[in-house]
Amino acid sequence: MNPRAVARVQGLFNLVGGAWPLLHLRSFERVFGPRTGRWLQYTSGGLLATTGWSLLRTGDCGAEAARSRRAGVGSAAALLSVDLIRVPPGRVRPAYLLDAAVQAGRLATWAACGRLTPVNENERAGGVPVHRNRPAQRPAAVPSPADSGLKDDATMTRTHPGTATDHSARTIDPGLLGIYLNDHLAGATSGTERVRYLARATAGSPLGREIGPLAAEIAEDRKTLLAIMRNLGVPVRRYKVGAAWIAERAGRLKTNGRLMRRSPLTTFFELEMLRMAVEGKAAGWQTLRRLAPDHDALDARLLDDLLERARRQQQTLEQWRERRIQSTFERPGPATAESP
């Protein structure tokens, strides 16, 4: 049985079940009984929906699959125990026994999946599996690189001609690199959502006609970053991506002096935030570009192109930001009659 499919089916049920009381509590109470502490129902529904979303977004790699198994088994066991403890004393309706049967079935399904074995990119492509607890088996003539989470041919060790071993060869710290790239991915997620929002809000205007293609470029840059992370074997930390997505949505609630309609300050503020986001993205490309000469997994020419495009994006956003300064902050003075 495919663990990924099991996780996604359970994720869908958890997402729907958790969102149900949040979206329409009255119909939920008709089935499962009225709630005296609605805040508690909203809290548990939100947590269940979050768990479901995480299970739906599970990936193929071993680390993500193992986390999904733990989340699936843990949530099913918790719900099953609550159902069995609260139904017999009559604290909740017998309808929860149906939920208990569903949760027991999920636990049985996870048990049938067996133990999950971590799978890396090399193994999925049909190559030699590389395990975290031991190096991959290689011919005796080829030294086995330490498993750092990066591609085998990008273990980041180089030797100078004429020497058997270069003890001064530089290596990448996979842990720090993973944190760094995931932080940039979170920023790219927030920036992509914000520029799309700005493009929709200004559609049809001169700004919107220029922001639209820019939004497509920024979204493409995010996909390129994901491709670089896959090439380096860096796993995506989805909780960081999700937190960035939520933070961007929460940022839209800022009123900027208006409650019912869009404020002129909103557009100016978004241009300014995007300008800083693109500057941070350019710094990330520049960091990888500095590492590229010593590490074959990084494409120097691609990074040069990305840096150049980031500079063009910065110029475009800065030009529009400067254009909006006067229209945002200055008010027209009172009309004065001309002297005869």
Short précis:
With 340 residues, this protein is mainly α. The protein is built from eleven helices and no strands. The C terminus is likely disordered.
What is the first-to-last residue Cα distance?
92 Å
The ordered string of helix (H) and strand (E) elements is HHHHHHHHHHH
* Helical percentage: 55-70%
Mass-distribution shape: flat
| Secondary structural class | mainly alpha
Classify the beta-strand content into a percent band. under 5%
Radius of gyration: 27 Å
Helical run tally: 11
Mean pLDDT: 75
Spans where pLDDT lies below 50 across 5 or more residues: 115-168, 336-340
Number of E-state strands: 0
Largest sheet: none
